[in-house]
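Possible race condition, two jobs.
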Amino acid sequence: MCLYLTTSKGLYKYNLKDNILIKIIGNWSKGLFKKPSKGFFGICLDNNKNQIITASRENFTIDKFYNKSTDLLLHFYDPINNRSVENVTIKNIYDVHQIFYHNKKIYLTDTGKNRVQVYNCETKKIDSFIDIGPDRKNYNHVNAIYVDKNRILIGLNNGNKENLKNAQIIEIIAKNITNNNLDAFNVGKIIELKDIFHTHDIEKIGDDYFFSASEDGNLVSLNQLSVIKKLPVWTRGITKSKDYIFVGKSGTASRKLRHTRYYDGMVSVLSRNDLNLVNELKIPKIGQLNDILYYECSK
């Protein structure tokens, strides 16, 4: 039983049985004299559970009007044989957050451009976009995505200086998708998350969907539209096993400092039955913890 964690300092594996933390891919992984990545963020598992896919933020393209990441690397990792399989560069995608694999496509939150880009794993190209409104700037801080055969859920954090209001989720019913490029505001339903702010993550738990209100340290249920568990502040990253729910946490600091090795992360382990706290796992010297993925590893 393992957790894969994306952090400021790279991709890590935490063995839950032996309590051992191993760095799998570092943020200096591109070779000598190359600039480090700006951290690893989204992580997902392909439908066959043979590959873990994670996204690191990069700056291959210079944009003098945007001081954050402008591109990404998709890292395809084989957890069975413990080896990297492939890296794919995707340019013109700003500040990726959560990613999601469904039906040979990877849905990538393009936060800085207020949209979702859809990467086709067969053609190895971006083949469609889901826009959030007409403007390609960080207006809604799009940072969470979930996809299945029936629906797409897109999380709008809405917590940036241009649009400070409660968070929202857009639900798009699959049968309403009639072409490759669409505006979610035109075809989706907006779910208002009243008095819930600064959200990350969408994780399906049974017949519900959980997300985190990071700044307040709250775990929130979409079905109930309310807080169901209070946790330490700055929650980020949710995954589950058959018996447990795992919720990540980062240290609190300025944006610059919290990405340094001087900050630890933590994972709260909750019982799926009653959400009681079972354990707290310290993840040392990783900077910011961005996302987590449970995987049934053998070692």
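Job #2 (started ~2 s after job #1):
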Amino acid sequence: MKILEIILIFSLCMITGCNVIPMNSNPQNLLPSKSFIDADLRLITISMSDHADTDLISSIQVETAWKNSLEKALFTKKIFSDNSKRKVNIDINVTKYIVGITQFDVHIIAEYKIVDRNSDKIIHSEVIDSKGNSNLFFGLNRSNESNGMAIRANIEKYIAKLEEYALENQTIPSSRSY
């Protein structure tokens, strides 16, 4: 009977181990923005503060997924103008990244700053709070999904705030690149 249990556990591990889903933090269903910021985005940086609890997951994996997802979202939304004379960076400081004891609940607080590259002046700043909780069964898949959901929600909220900011501060540049 013990051999049957070992075979069953081994079989389940083999089946589920082959189906591990990657962390997907890409926002969905984005359309180009109707408003934009007259600035050329040059660089996105992400840093994890000392209060961010990423011991259970790789902070490099989180930072890479976050940066790639934000770049794709901003490219799709076309909020920034490539032809602008004003050059900016987006600096993101993740002040809280709490992974629940079960690794299924993720809570993120991140501060986004748009910084003028010439003057180092902060043009716009937002603090975004988001959560992710997957209902998938398998532990690693559930953990990846929860992390991806929290990052995706954070980016989607930031994009919405950026569009509000762009609408409130709309300027007409000489041309807008698509």
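Residues 173-178 have pLDDT under 50 and may be disordered.
Logs attached separately.
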